[in-house]
Write a structure and sequence with these properties.
InterPro entries: Homeodomain-like_sf, HTH-type_TetR-like_transc_reg, HTH_TetR, Repressor_TetR_C, Tet_transcr_reg_TetR-rel_C_sf. This protein is mostly helical and about 210 residues long. It has ten helices and no strands. Helix 8 runs antiparallel to helix 10.
Length: about 210
Amino acid sequence: MGRPRTPLLDRERIGATALELLDEQGEFSVPQVARRLGVQTGSVYHHVDGRAGVIELVRERVSASIDTATLDLHPWDTALTAWARSYRAAFAAHPHAIPLLMTSPVRAPKVLAQYEQAVRLLLDVGFPVDRVMTVITALENLVLGSALDLAAPETMWELPADSPGTENLAEALAAIGPGRADAAFELALGAFMEHCRTLGPSGAPSSPSGA
């Protein structure tokens, strides 16, 4: 038999399969990836540096959905706001990936390049270098927490029919409109951006609302 025209195994297929398993069951193992691809576990290790390498392939795949062109927008706060919204959408599509990726060091070159772009944006408009990663980390905390919220039930508080002492909570819950998670995210993002405008960008134009 001749060699197959399409390789049976490559890094792209490994990453896609690991993410597929993660979406389905909230976890994956390298042997599971191998079984689904119909190869031996050792064959996967020929393409990646262990489980950590597979995690980085998952990170690249999820992060590829983030629109990095948003970081080229002007003014800077419009860019950062648009990036945050795109970042949230990318991870909201794969909520099981969030705990895994946020507890593993970032090594994927394509993802590091995106961080470099965000850092350069903040430095170029005058953020002190010692505050740049704090700003980015705080924004990630907001974004990823909201991405998890999007995966939660729309109603997160269940009050018994006869529940004394929760009248105010019941009234507030009854007043919630549709899109609770989206409304909460926009409120937090707006407040975050308003604070960022006070942290040091001097002489750099910003949008009136940061939208």
